[in-house]
Design goal:
Elements lengths: L2 H11 L3 H12 L4 H7 L1 H4 L4 H30 L5 H8 L4 H8 L9 H7 L3 H9 L5 H5 L10 H17 L2 H11 L3 E6 L1 H5 L11 E5 L5 H12 L3 E6 L2 H16 L4 H51 L9 E5 L6 E6 L5 E7 L8 H14 L4 E5 L4 H9 L8 E5 L4 H5 L2 H6 L5 H14 L1 H5 L18 H19 L1 E2 L5 H4 L6 H15 L16 H7 L3 E2 L17 H11 L3 H4 L3 H5 L13 H12 L29 E9 L3 E5 L6 E4 L11 H4 L5 E10 L4 E7 L1
Parallel strand pairs: 4-7, 7-8, 9-10, 13-15
Antiparallel strand pairs: 1-2, 1-3, 4-5, 5-6, 11-12, 11-14, 12-13, 14-15
């Protein structure tokens, strides 16, 4: 990649050019983000996986920009208009908007008023006006009254059309207007459709709304643009036409010299026409798109942060689990799973009206708990979830059995998906949904990777943002979480394995097939026997795969096989075996890391090895804790301002956190109510599924809205 781009990426990310260059070299060598950030810290200067992902994103952006430059240069050269100065400007460009400005005068055009005027032979008259020297424009125009031009005024109009287009295609004028427009306000007004359709009521706050576009929060802008798309609002930039016109004309005069009074009148008219007809629609659209891109990036970042927290939510681990998908009329679907998540049995109970077969349900639950040695119970938090949780807690279960409320978001999507049908072809969607609820309690990461992240209910206007940017962020987040935790090679599903560094769907399937035919993997090296899994794929994935009980204990750690020889040297120097060193914190602390620095192993990698040796294979996630809502709160009408309640954080946005307090309606803690001076960043204060205490500030029964304040 060109040094120009490397330096720009480094400046944008606040890192050194050599760090960017090394990252790009590693990408070109087939390395993945998790591998680079974990096992090549010396090459990157310790960049995190998020930093490395940003480098890759910007490298891809500049790769596309370089291809665009090639296309543009080719087009201009074909026209015979490519000067050395223009080539230099294009080659040195690092901004897509600036590049398109340079190309605009040469871009092949459809029929325009200017092109029609040129075809009628009026370009020389336009050039005369552009020079600003004539004192008799009308007289000069008389020479062009012929053919399709019926009058001198018509000739002047055509010349002004040419000038208007020329002004609109001048890069400096466009950039001047962008600077002005970025300081203006964006406004929205209700349309006739918005006034008459009830569905528009949710956008009532924007029926007459105005805010500086540089300061508008992402959620406000995305809501306005969605409402405009649905026909309920008109959204525009409140630009000062007179100020912009004066500025454009003044800049033209500064560049070309002040024209004669008569030419000035023609030029000013062309400037005003260019602004109104060409520049304003174009630049307004650009600035709004620019603001939306920023809003997209903020929203995608929020979504990625939320997804990371959801995927890394505390698991209960390998416990025998009874899972319930609650329901009233159709009953509660019950499944029992073994400690590995395999389905043992399924049934339906009817503890709620209209059937209300409570005694039968109690007996069946007690029987299942005893028969399968159930350790934990997972209850979906959707319809009838609160009532089912109350019922289960009154069944009289053994004290050792813990009850958890589990988010159902995405469970129905999984149930009807190809993945769900492939895993449980003989069962219907109700059984699959209950299994998903149980498994996501046992190991949220392993289960949630099977579901489209956009279905998990943790985003902000996820359908309105740039879908390519969103997919890139979510894929990177899932990949980061999976590799951060590590994956059990002998139990992981193909859906989990495909996110391991260097594997992907095809190799994941090959690994599972090999495992089924040959039994459990005995060591990491055996991966090289998997068809189509070569040395490069092994290098990228091996450190993130775990084999509990392997003959070499390092195979159940994050120590990469390429570093096993370093561990062997450490053990030899201590006169112990590698097995004795692994997990012995005292021995590990006695090692001088500087002694083992050399070759491809710098101090950061040696320190990582020592840290991992102390606690090999440690899961970075916390342990799940049971939670209970306030028993006295059953309906929104039970709420009163001043009440203090327990709650679970269900979603984080740029403007606040949504909290489940045991009702169908979630409450909102606005960012200003988080107990932090000024406006807090919700994701910096709270985490998804965090257990919190809140105070009720307001209750809007009509709109079903609950305002909350976070208590310390």
């Amino acid at each position: 990649m060109k040094e120009l781009y490397i330096n720009h990426i480094a400046q944008e990310l606040g890192v050194k050019p050599w760090q960017v260059e090394n990252c790009i070299t590693l990408f070109e060598d087939g390395c993945t983000i998790p591998f680079i950030s974990r096992y090549r810290k010396e090459h990157t200067g310790g960049l995190t996986d998020i930093d490395v992902a940003q480098v890759r994103h910007l490298a891809d952006v500049f790769t596309d920009l370089e291809k665009r430059k090639g296309s543009i240069l080719g087009t201009i050269e074909e026209q015979g208009k490519l000067t050395e100065e223009l080539r230099r400007q294009i080659d040195n460009c690092v901004n897509a908007t600036e590049l398109e400005d340079l190309y605009l005068p040469y871009r092949p055009k459809r029929k325009t008023r200017a092109s029609v005027a040129v075809a009628r032979g009026l370009e020389p008259l336009a050039n005369l006006l552009w020079s600003g020297k004539t004192h008799a424009p009308l007289k000069e125009a008389q020479q062009y009254v012929k053919g399709e031009v019926s009058s001198a005024e018509e000739a002047l109009q055509g010349a002004r059309d040419i000038l208007a287009e020329r002004i609109s295609e001048t890069a400096s004028h466009r950039e001047t207007l962008r600077g002005i427009y970025r300081t203006r306000r964006i406004a929205s007004a209700v349309t006739k459709k918005g006034e008459t359709e009830p569905e528009a009521g949710k956008y009532r706050s924007y029926f007459k709304f105005s805010q500086p576009i540089a300061k508008i929060p992402a959620h406000n802008l995305l809501a306005m643009l969605r409402a405009q798309e649905e026909g309920y609002l008109r959204v525009s930039l409140d630009a000062d036409a007179e100020k912009c016109g004066n500025k454009l004309y003044y800049d033209w005069c500064q560049e070309h010299g002040y024209p004669s009074r008569e030419c000035g009148e023609q030029l000013r008219e062309a400037v005003d026409d260019s602004l109104k007809r060409l520049l304003d629609p174009s630049i307004s659209g650009e600035i709004i798109r620019e603001a939306k891109q920023k809003a997209d990036e903020e929203s995608v970042q929020v979504f990625g942060d939320n997804l990371r927290q959801l995927l890394l939510a505390p698991p209960v681990g390998q416990k025998r689990t009874l899972a319930i998908d609650p329901g009233f009329r159709t009953g509660c679907k019950v499944v029992c799973l073994d400690a590995q998540g395999s389905l043992l049995c399924h049934d339906v109970i009817f503890p709620h009206p209209p059937s209300a077969k409570k005694m039968e349900a109690i007996e069946k639950l007690a029987e299942l708990v005893e028969k399968y040695g159930i350790e934990v119970i997972a209850i979906g938090n959707g319809t009838a979830g609160r009532e089912t949780e109350d019922f289960v807690k009154k069944v009289g279960l053994p004290e050792s059995v813990q009850v958890f409320s589990v988010s159902e978001d995405g469970a129905s999507v999984y149930s009807a998906s190809d993945v769900g049908r492939e895993e449980f072809p003989e069962y219907d969607v109700t059984v699959r949904g209950a299994v998903s609820i149980g498994r996501r309690l046992m190991d949220p990461l392993s289960e949630l990777v099977k579901i489209d992240p956009k279905s998990l209910g943790v985003g902000q206007y996820q359908h309105d943002v740039d879908q390519g940017l969103l997919k890139e962020k979510l894929d990177n987040t899932v990949e980061s979480c999976v590799n951060n935790v590590g994956v059990n090679l002998n139990t992981a599903s193909p859906y989990l394995l495909q996110y391991v560094s260097g594997i992907g769907p095809a190799l994941a399937g090959a690994i599972v097939k090999y495992r089924a035919e040959n039994g459990s993997f005995k060591g990491r090296e055996e991966l090289l026997k998997v068809p189509r899994l070569g040395a490069k794929a092994f290098q990228q994935c091996a450190g993130f795969l775990r084999i509990p009980g392997a003959q070499n204990p390092l195979d159940n750690s994050a120590v990469h096989p390429e570093a096993y020889k370093v561990v062997d040297r450490m053990a030899q120097d201590l006169k112990v075996s590698a097995s004795e060193l692994v997990g012995n914190a005292d021995l590990c602390r006695s090692i001088d890391p500087e002694k083992y620095v050399g070759g491809n192993f710098g101090l950061p990698t040696i320190n990582d090895i020592l840290q991992e040796l102390q606690k090999p294979g440690r899961d970075p996630r916390e342990t799940a804790r049971a939670f209970s809502f306030d028993d006295d709160i059953r309906d929104i009408e039970d709420l009163k301002p001043g009440m203090e309640l327990p709650g679970l954080v269900t979603n984080l946005t740029a403007f606040g956190a949504f909290v489940d307090i045991g009702l169908h309606e979630n409450g909102l803690i606005h960012a200003s109510q988080m107990g932090v001076r000024g406006m807090a960043v919700p994701s910096k204060v709270l985490k998804l599924q965090q257990q919190v205490r809140v105070e009720v500030l307001s209750v809007d029964l009509e709109r079903k809205r609950i305002g909350l304040r976070l208590l310390k």
